[in-house]
Amino acid sequence: MSFVTQLVPVATALTTISLGLYTTILPQSKRPKFFAALIIFACLTWHTSKNLPFTLQFINQFLVAILFYLWHMFNLLFIHAYQIEPSSKSVSSLKKLRTAYYMNSNVRWLDTPHEVRDIIGRPTNQFILKKWEDKGEAVNKPLIAISRIHYVLRKIVDLVLFHFLEKLLKDTLHPTVTGHDFMTSRTHFIRRLLFQPNDLYPYKPSSRECMIRGYYSLVFFLGDYVLLHKGHSLLALVHVGLGIHRPEDWPRLFGPFSGLTKGVRGMWGVYWHKLHTRAYSDSSRAVLSKIGITRDHICFRPLANLIVFCVTGAAHVIVAKKMGYTCAGWLEFFWWLGNWAVLVLETLVEVGYKKVWRRMGLRRNAGFERVVCFLWVLAWVFWSVPKITYQKLWCYPMV
What is the reported pTM? Predict the structure, then answer.
């Protein structure tokens, strides 16, 4: 593959980002045309991404990033309708571009004035603007009380640690496996555990199978954690080191592992990264408000979460198809949908649990509850993740 061919997706990606910067500066009336051009170049980047001289894992994350970037830009331009203020006409174009770059890359705290206190512009969506103004008292409260040099040194250490952790996951801990370990029957763990072997499920779960399942469960928890943290640390190192951003503009990507002690809701709401949360959540709320479901409605939060999980699942299916996986696409979508169902189930169980204990007049043991929730999360991942992983390994794109 020629060097020029490999440069094509890079050139189209840079053009897409440039169009995003320029569109952010434009007034609302001119944005649709330029956003359409942005979509065209993003599609070209998507189509030529196979020419990139990188690993399949990198290209997979690159494709996910393209989809998310489009969603984030739509959210920024049309849901938040973030607009450079008319009073800023005298401000230099460089200042406006800096503002646009800041907002294009600001995916987690889009509607908080803390992130935009020293730049021009504000959202014009009235509901979001009210939230934006209500949080004004938090403007001068730093998220990270650390000097620039200490932050840069910390990120260098993070890069080294995550590099070795990645090597540990991929090489040292990776078990020796064969195709027999990923047979379709292996995905059915509980029924093989409870019932006697038969023609469909001739094997009982073995210790080796549990070890392999445990490894892929660990990869689920730490795989994206390591990969995304490496990219996050590198970008933070560059932006903070060059003085483009401040340390508080790059808070932790993932939450604490203690979030896993709060059930599957804690896994997604506390531990997991928040890269998509603002864009997906605001879009889902905008959709629900259009059909008359307000925040005080009992179904608002479950339906908002349902939209978020459906969009996430659809994005993973689209990327899997583009990567060349010929199977397990829709199974992955239903896995994400299953996580939403678990969130609803956990909420109902918690409500019933609290009522029972309240009526019995007993004191709840918080430590015991955290242990039970943590074991439940491990059991859910141990049982459900191999259902997708094993299927996808059979149709893994080798070229």
Answer: 0.84
Q: Which two tokens stand for residue 370?
A: 């955290």
Q: Would you say 76 and 107 are in contact if contact means Cβ atoms under 8 Å apart?
A: no
CA gap 304, 326 in Å, rounded: 30
245-282 pLDDT per residue, tens:
888 778 788 888 899 999 999 999 889 987 777 778 77
What is the widest separation between alpha-carbon atoms in the chain?
Answer: 78
Annotated domain spans of the chain? 3-138, 144-251, 254-399
CA atoms within 13 A on the CB side of 276: 23
In one-letter notation, the amino acid at residue 388 is I
Q: pLDDT tens digits for 156-166?
A: 999 999 999 99
- The single-letter DSSP state of residue 395 is T
Is residue 149 within 8 Å of residue 237, measured between CB atoms?
no
Eight-state DSSP code of residue 254: S
What's the CA gap between 173 and 169, in Å, rounded? 5
What would the two tokens of residue 340 be? 């939403």
